[in-house]
Amino acid sequence: MVDHIGVLLECKPEVEAVHDSERTLRHHKGLVRSRLGIVAYPDWARALAEASVRAAAVTKDHPAYLINVALEELVRARLELPATAPWTSWSPGSAPR
User: Fewest Cβ atoms closer than 10 Å to its Cβ: which of 34, 41, 53, 63?
Assistant: First the structure.
């Protein structure tokens, strides 16, 4: 996204998008979330993703399909997607079924 905006603004490649402080970064993230009407990844989001995968796993078993189901449910709930997806911690034997 940063690269796309840089192209639109015709920025030189050496121009980097940086924040002067963590406080500014948090403030900007808050503004973007507010503008888009989304919520930062709350504690209950993982449970929502897991529940949607469990429901879909009754009829489907392809991992890519199940991941898409979880992503669609998080987006439907207007949640910011996590930096690290919850399913990356699921080993093949521990994934929700």
Answer: 34
| pTM (predicted TM-score) | 0.61
Q: What are the tokens at 6?
A: 């840089």
**What is the chain written as a DSSP string?**
-HHHHHHHTT--TT-----S-HHHHHHHHHHHHHHHT-B---TTHHHHHHHHHHHHTTT---HHHHHHHHHHHHHHTTBPPPSS-GGGG--TTTS--
Residues 6+ apart with CB under 8 A from 89: none
pLDDT in tens, 25-51: 888 888 888 988 998 888 888 899 899
Paired tokens of 24:
């500014």
* Structure tokens given for 72: 């669609």
